[in-house]
Amino acid sequence: AQKRYASLRGLPAQSRCGRITSLHMNAGLMADLPSLEGSGAEGVGLFRTELQFLIRNRMPKREELAQIYARVMDAASGRRVAFRTLDIGSDKVLPYLKPQDEPNPAMGWRAIRVGLDKPGVLRMQLQALIRAAKGRPLTVMFPFIAEAHEFAEARSYLLREIHREKSLGYPTPEQLEIGAMLETPSLAFAPQSFFDAVDFVSLGGNDLKQFFFAADRENERVRRRYDSLSGAFLSFLSQVVARCDASGKPLSFCGEDAGRPIEAITFAALGIRTLSMRPASIGPVKTLLRRVDLDALGAEIRSGLAAGEESLRPRVMDWLATQPE
Ligand code: PEP
Ligand code: MG
Per-residue pLDDT tens for 171-219? Predict the structure, then answer.
């Protein structure tokens, strides 16, 4: 199987209908970067920056971070890397930041909420990213955005830091993309001003699913209870696709489900054009994407939704069984 996937490395994930899905990888450590070559990923769709903070027992310094981010960009040699700003809190606790005793940390003071309430660390991280980019293109995405104003504030921190770096005489990114992670259902219903302001939206399916179904992603008793191919979840996703399309904003999916071939073809059929996953999933996902006609699958899913099917999984599996190898 490894060999078969290796022979696909240079080929696009082009489905029978002609549609091409962009496949990217998720990363978080320098050690992940060599997989970019091996997997054939187009870029890093999610770089989880908190890992650099979690592997230390003290707060990293700005220059240390800038060096790490620069090495990540060097290793990506021109491919796009979407740096997700610090997502701490919830399951990721930094020993050197006073641990918060919260009754429900997944819904607590985490991610961008910390960044906006105590912007010192966020600003330091943004400065490090700007210095690392040294005039190269820079892609930043903010985690756990629940409301439009949170994105607007985070974005203005980044723009202010760029302005400041420029006034200090540092080179600033020639191209800038600023995205939001959609991980809470509320963001799908944000005012149009949010969709106008954002450069791209990335679905954080792991958190999104836990909040959509109110099922703790860490709790073995409930975490597999609800299916990502449920009619409810797919209807929700198709509404997000429609809003992004109407606003001309690219939409990607970077949760674990993107790396599961059946989920991946379903999301692609709904109109999600970029999927980001662990590197080992790229081969299997690409193989299945190349085998199917996404337009036909999309029509199949729409009929199932119109018929009120609670889960689309049986229909997708039956349809797949009729498709040529
Ligand atoms: C997600 O929630 O789907 C996601 C990609 O972020 P993380 O798994 O790091 O919370
Ligand atoms: Mg998340």
Answer: 999 899 999 999 999 999 999 999 999 999 999 999 999 999 999 999 9
Torsion angle, alpha carbons of 173, 177, 181, 186, to 10:
130
H, E, C per residue of the chain: CHHHHHHHCCCCEECCCCCEEEEEEEECCHHHCCHHHHHCCCCEEEEECHHHHHCCCCCCCHHHHHHHHHHHHHHCCCCCEEEECCCCECCECCCCCCCCCCCCHHHCCCCHHHHHHCHHHHHHHHHHHHHHHCCCCEEEEECCCCCHHHHHHHHHHHHHHHHHHHHCCCCCCCCEEEEEEECCHHHHHCCHHHHHHCCEEEECHHHHHHHHCCCCCCCCCCCCCCCCCEHHHHHHHHHHHHHHHHHCCCEEECCHHHHCHHHHHHHHHHCCCEEEECHHHHHHHHHHHHHCCHHHHHHHHHHHHHCCCCECHHHHHHHHHCCCC
Ligand 1 centre and the CA of 267: distance in Å?
A: 17
Please give the ipTM for the structure prediction. 0.99
| Atom 9 of ligand 1: nearest residue by CA position | 48
Strands 13-14 and 20-27, how do they pair?
A: antiparallel
Distance of alpha carbon 111 from alpha carbon 144, whole angstroms: 6
The CA 162 to ligand 2 mean position distance, Å, reads 26
Cα 107 to averaged position of ligand 1 atoms, centre (Å) = 14
Instruction: Give the pTM.
Output: 0.97
**Dist CA 224 CA 205 (whole Å):** 13
Q: Is 200 within 8 Å of 252 (Cβ atoms)?
A: yes
Phi and psi torsions of 260, nearest 5°: -100, 120
Interatomic CA distance for residues 284 and 269, integer angstroms: 17
Mutate to test the pocket of ligand 1, among 46, 53, 93, 206 (most ligand atoms within 8 A of CB): 206
The finding on whether 258 has its CB within 6 A of some atom of ligand 1 is no
